[in-house]
Amino acid sequence: MRPDTPAENVDHNAEAARLERTAGLYPEDAEHLLLQAAAHRELAGDRPGATALYDRLLSSPEPLDNPHLVRALKASNLWEYDHEAEARAIIDGVRAASPRQAAPWVIVAESLESHDELEAAEATFTEGLRLLLGDAPEPSQSMHPLLYGRHRVRRMLGAAHDEWDALADALHSSPVSLDELHDPKRIWSLGSDNPAELEAEISRLRAELGAYREALSRPFPVAILHWPSAELQELVSAYPSLAGEYPSHDEHLATIEDSLRELAASGTPNLGIVTGTVPSYEAFAASEGTSPTDMTLLPQYATTLAARGRAVTWPPETGAGCWCGSGRAYAGCHGAE
User: Fold this and answer.
1) pLDDT (mean) for 37-47
2) Range(s) for CATH 1.25.40.10 in the chain?
3) Which site from 32, 145, 265, 307 is most exposed, i.e. has the minimal number of CB atoms within 10 Å?
């Protein structure tokens, strides 16, 4: 379930409770699952409940993969229910820590922006980009929200375009340009009595919301199951009835790539790959009260791995290694035409 789903379409408290139960079953994935649960608590209006989940993560004896992101989300949530001083202190701490991931910078900058701290927001977006972009030939996908957010705030401040604003324009793929989306005068059109102006503004807002949700989407609508060679060999040895599904490892890899390309060609967004292991699959089968030989269990297993944050985005970014684990670049492996 996507955490940006409107409240009228989902019981966010029920989703949060389900994710918290799942975190208890899979403690190794608790960070991802509890962040999802906290997002649902926020959407349900239970901001103290969300804070409790962030505190639960931050007090965990196990090290977190991204503690700065958890702190940034906690600060953003706190500020929304009158804990401004604490939120500001956490934001200052996140900035001082100079995290090497883009997401914490985006969260704290947008929190400042949403409370009309535009100069501080612009400075935060810029700090994050200066640290993460460096001398890289091109920004990674995770840096795009930093560039877009900085562009938006600078438009609101009336700042002239600079090199990074031009880069944001070049990366933006929506039919509506960033300059148009981020035009401060757009707000006035919402109060217009002219139906044409209102219709045009609604179209712009839909385009912006669609791009924003796609950028922040965490779950994968379609996640294809990948078995490494040794795991696949162990799987079919232990469960020979599955050999018909996996005639050979090379065919398995080719089928994954072909399936993902077909899905992409049909317009399916946000595709991913999850990697299975035999012990994990057997444990999942036991939790479902069925046998690992049940063919219908395979897609369910893939979906569960994706929900636990185990999916990697397909296709890989330019220059990245192939998803198959060959060690070669994707473009020279399964990404070759």
Assistant:
1) 92
2) 7-216
3) 265
